[in-house]
Amino acid sequence: MRARAGTLDADDGPGMTVHEGNEPAMEADGGGTAPARRSLLLFLPLVAFAAFMGVVILPLLRGTDPSRVPSALIGKPVPAFALPAVAGLDRPGLDSADLRTGEVTILNVFASWCVPCREEAPALTALSASGRRMVGIAYKDRAESTKAFLGEGGDPFKAVGSDAQGRTGIDFGVYGVPETYVIKGDGTIAAKIVGPLTDDNIRDELMPALARAHGAVPAKG
Predict the structure, then answer these.
(1) Where are the strands (E) in the chain, listed by range?
(2) Which of 64, 146, 158, 209 shows a CA-CA span of 20 to 30 A to 93?
(3) 67-79: per-residue pLDDT in tens?
(4) Does domain 82-214 have CATH number 3.30.930.10?
């Protein structure tokens, strides 16, 4: 019997033809799986790019500022908290009762290590000079750093609470400093601004929120 590549010759016996079908089938499977995996790997970056477009680019094109993060606390009382004074700073600490004095208050959450906080310092000073009641929460900061920071940029606050562990910030839903809240006289949160205060958002967001908190204009539905 003469063996050939995958067959037995007709001389070896009538009707005796043997095909080695297993090996070609394995090659087909292996050859089909690798291109499919490569196609999937090529497709994944497209999915990631599409997600990026949907989350970041499209809101910008529509004129929506992604930094305007809605707060679940708008229209609700401020969380209960009691923060000590910043050591070495000539300002009292801050607690939730200080935000229920009957006077509209601007609460600013800041930190000395926050670059945008330094950028908004002149705006805070100007608001304080205009007679606005302003208080601050030093977020995850060291006392000596907070004291130095306020000494450099001016201290616009009537009171500053030290939130060294960031727990009060969590209760307020702080995403990142700086953040500014408008608090009604009864302690209700009227508005939240994420990011540094600028001429634009002071005009378009902060001042209307202050007016609504004072009851000068009706809140927008």
Answers:
(1) 82-83, 94-95, 105-110, 133-139, 160-163, 179-183, 189-194
(2) 209
(3) 555 568 899 999 9
(4) no
* 107-134 pLDDT tens trace: 999 999 999 999 999 999 999 999 999 9
Phi, psi of 193 (to 5 degrees): -120, 120
Q: Is the peptide bond before 178 cis (omega within 30 degrees of 0)?
A: yes
Between vectors from CA 103 to CA 98 and to CA 105, what angle results, nearest 5°?
70
Q: In one letter, which amino acid is 87?
A: A
Neighbours of 35 (CB within 10 A): 9
* Coil, helix or strand at residue 18: coil
Query: Which residue, among 75, 97, 77, 103, has the nearest Cα to 185 in the 3D structure?
Result: 103
Identify the three-state secondary structure at position 208: helix
Roughly how many angstroms between the first and final C-alpha of the chain, as a whole number?
Answer: 94
Percent of all residues in the chain with a pLDDT value above 70, rounded to a whole number: 65
> Is the separation of the CB atoms in 124 and 114 below 8 Å?
no
